[in-house]
């Protein structure tokens, strides 16, 4: 299968790296950080499928797809990747011309099944077995087990380490933004944290960031200091798990 090439389009570097780790065992890939960069790559290279984030600076995913189709740059399948809240949103993305849709946080299993389905034009999706996922523990170990099928333990450790560094930076930025009541920007930072913690199965942070982001969306800013304290506490707990090697030791 490694004669196929995937173009990953996402403005978040950690998202790109997670996707690269998931698909790199089975497919060649290149990555773009926004829609404009993706169009340039598509004009000069051959790909077999595109994974397209929706919310991006410079040129968002929907506008990028429109240019691709209007200029007939390529006719390969394009899979939209974004958070969504209901079936209507999913249908909207498909109506704009995307061939498929995957909701964030992205499960490695869903990503691989979708790519396989569109590249092989299968009548049915290939079901990749996956253990029932735990939503109660601090870490969803089935995500780690799925990632380990496609990359080395050291590389997966590196991805989680990158997330920790990013989460520390974003948490500090959120604290500063709160001092200036920049709630929309806080929501954007929380969206990144929620998506990446969900994709990596870091439940201890996913739950906190999900609730915090929802409060910001509802313009509920009372008690924001407590929300930030909970975010810092969840980050500290994840950092302790990572530094004590409690997450990966059983896989070594």
UniProtKB/TrEMBL annotation:
Species: Cyclobacterium amurskyense
Designated name of the protein: Response regulator receiver and Hpt phospho transfer protein
A GO BP annotation: phosphorelay signal transduction system
Any one Gene Ontology cellular component term annotated for this protein: plasma membrane
Main location: membrane
CDD domains, sorted: REC_hyHK_CKI1_RcsC-like
GO molecular function, one term: protein kinase activity
Superkingdom of source: Bacteria
Pfam families membership: Hpt, Response_reg
Membrane topology of this protein: Multi-pass membrane protein
Annotated keywords: ATP-binding, Cell membrane, Membrane, Nucleotide-binding, Phosphoprotein, Transmembrane, Transmembrane helix, Two-component regulatory system
Modified residues (Phosphohistidine): 191
Modified residues (4-aspartylphosphate): 53
Coiled coil: none
Claim: Nucleotide-binding is one of the keywords in the record: yes
InterPro entries: CheY-like_superfamily, HPT_dom_sf, Sig_transdc_His_kin_Hpt_dom, Sig_transdc_resp-reg_receiver
Gene3D superfamilies linked: 3.40.50.2300, HPT domain
Ranges for domain HPt: 152-245
SUPFAM superfamilies listed in its UniProt record: CheY-like, Histidine-containing phosphotransfer domain, HPT domain
Location relative to the cell: Cell membrane
Residues of the Response regulatory domain: 5-119
């Amino acid at each position: 299968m490694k004669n196929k090439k995937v173009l990953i389009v996402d403005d978040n570097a950690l998202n790109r790296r997670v996707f690269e780790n998931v698909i790199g065992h089975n497919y060649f890939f290149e990555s773009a950080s926004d829609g404009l960069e993706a169009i340039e790559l598509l004009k000069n290279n051959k790909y077999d499928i595109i994974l397209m984030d929706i919310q991006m600076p410079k040129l968002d995913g929907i506008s990028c797809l429109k240019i691709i189709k209007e200029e007939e740059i390529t006719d390969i399948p394009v899979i939209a990747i974004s958070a969504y809240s209901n079936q209507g949103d999913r249908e909207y993305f498909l109506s704009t011309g995307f061939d498929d849709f995957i909701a964030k946080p992205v499960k490695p299993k869903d990503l691989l099944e979708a790519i396989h389905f569109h590249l092989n034009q299968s009548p049915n999706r290939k079901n990749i077995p996956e253990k029932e996922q735990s939503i109660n523990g601090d870490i969803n170990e089935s995500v780690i087990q799925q990632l380990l099928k496609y990359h080395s333990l050291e590389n997966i450790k590196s991805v989680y380490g990158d997330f920790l560094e990013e989460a520390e930076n974003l948490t500090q930025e959120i604290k500063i933004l709160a001092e200036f009541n920049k709630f929309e920007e806080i929501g954007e930072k929380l969206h990144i944290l929620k998506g990446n913690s969900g994709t990596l199965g870091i439940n201890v942070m996913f739950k906190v960031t999900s609730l915090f982001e929802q409060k910001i969306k509802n313009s509920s800013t009372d008690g924001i200091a407590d929300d930030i304290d909970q975010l810092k506490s969840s980050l500290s707990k994840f950092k302790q798990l990572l530094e004590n090697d409690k997450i990966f030791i059983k896989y070594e």
